Amino acid sequence: MKIFYLSILSVFFCQSSLAQLTVRNDAYIFATNIEVYVEDDVNLTEANSTFYLRDEAQLIQGSGNTGNSGVGRLSVYQEGNVDNYAYNYWASPVGNVSANTTGNRTFIPNQNIFDVVDLTNSNPAGFSTTGYNGTSSPLNIEQYWLWKYNPGTAYSEWDYVGQSGFVDAGYGFTMKGTDAGNQQYDFRGKPNEGEISTAIGNGQETLIGNPYPSALDALAFIHDPNNTGLLDTGTLYYWDHDPNANSHVLVNYRGGYGTYTIDATGTVESYVAPTYDTYNADGTLNTIGTASTSGKIARRYIPIGQGFMVKGAAAGTLLTSDSHRVFYRESAANSEFFRTTNQNESATTNQTTNQGIQYNADGLAIVPSDFKRFRLNIDFNETYTRQLLQNFHNTATSGEDYGLESRIPEPLSSDAFWPQSTKKLVTQANAYDLDLAIPVVLNLNAQQLIRFRIFDVQNFENNQPIYIHDKVTDMYVDLQSQNFEINLPAGNYTDRFEVVFVEGNALSTDEFAENNFNVIQNNNISELVVLNPKKLDIESIKLYDVSGKMIFNEIVKNNNERLGYSTKNLSDGVYLVQATLSNNNTTTKKVIVANKK
What we know:
This protein is mainly beta. It has 3 domains: 3-243 and 294-365, no CATH class; 368-500, no CATH class; 507-593, Sandwich (Immunoglobulin-like), CATH 2.60.40. 3% of the residues lie in helices and 44% in strands. Strands 36, 37, 38, 39, 40, 41, 42, 43, 44, 45 and 46 form an 11-stranded mixed beta sheet that branches. Strands 2, 5, 8, 10, 12, 13, 14 and 20 form an 8-stranded mixed beta sheet that branches. Strands 24, 25, 26, 27 and 28 form a 5-stranded antiparallel beta sheet that branches. A hairpin with a 2-residue loop joins β39 and β40 (423-430). It is elongated. It starts with a strand and ends with a strand. Residues 1-14, 278-283, 285-293 and 339-354 have low confidence and may be disordered.
């Protein structure tokens, strides 16, 4: 196998495909804005042997099994995009070079992060041992904020890294930014390559990331046969920190996780923005949320250095490999270090990647013509918003649809979700049908105003309504034409609200009308009367007040011509009576109680 021994001062690549790559003595390679492909290993032999990746150049490695070697360094830049009060989640593309061994080595912050001087020169980053704020010039990282998160369910599973701790290849770490806000870091060390394993626990979260000096294809990673049984719903969770929460005190933090997944064809991306929340001193949720306004969106091609959380569907070992690596520039439309959508692209025109995925002016993915989609925004007391995404395709099932659904990251004390068996979803997939009814669950810790709004409606007929149905009041509101607001008391609303596409049940209404079924309130004797002259088989009679609180649920299971219920103990006001027959047809009647004094 041919080996390239480079003993000249420098080599400037415009394009390159090599079997092996060796740099010796004080030689260096300088690659700018191109892909450098090496089939087997990279050997940066001596300590002053250097490989520079600049201006979005990336290193891709093939199926070789020798393993990178040497004590020289690869240098690649990445930019953090938060200030000194907020976290980015990272994963290092390089490891330490303290020993000349093959295989990947651990990342050590004070050995692998450097402060940029010019295109080829950098100084070791400084690390503060006092105070809490990082600075940009010279680069001084506050080591207190460097942590990693291995499988576990408690906040205590965060493990301190600091300036001299280690992070194994493939795992992620947290780091706060500097006073500059957008800070450039030079990652220098032995380039990671090959198959990299990260442990994951059943039902537990792990902080991992892109471990290579190239982009990582989320499609290939999520749908790798080794990973499909381990990644819960095939979802990656991206941390987003409210930039306006300028505090290091945990109870003042506001942040949350956005969810990203992609279907097996690579044509349908599903990203849902986080709902910000605050945290107690022990790390538990404080559940006073705010809406995310950062504009950050995750995309298919995960850039160099990006970290993210995953949740285990089973205990095992996730794999990233060189087959997941791609050359994809971060400035292109479908790769971003989790940051605002307008940093590298137009905000007024659709964007199309070379893979055919198109984005609208809001940066949201446009689904193929055989899919449908809408997003439901549910506002809680005009304080924060939970966004829910619904995907439709004829291949979707009533069970889990891997790559089309995502579990809610961290349920709040007042929250909403799509229910699926025991799962709480923010993204759900269904096979579209006009008669489909999609339940929406609300859990409220206090009385509050709830608002339902819809947007990002794709591939529905222009005149197709999308209703929110209040099953208690039997009210249908077409969210295509107006929002729906309701004031609700505290409680768990598991069977009250649903999204439907047709209004009411004409057969049900006709059955009650044709049989002279009626409900009346006789205030002279304080009695609610159900008249059933044609002796329909009644299953139950339920009474609600106008807030939706159930007053009683009478299981009838008979066909009596007359039923009566005392209303003497009820407060005067408007009530709703819901009658259900044995065939599940229902009708709702409004009555007014005015007890005689």
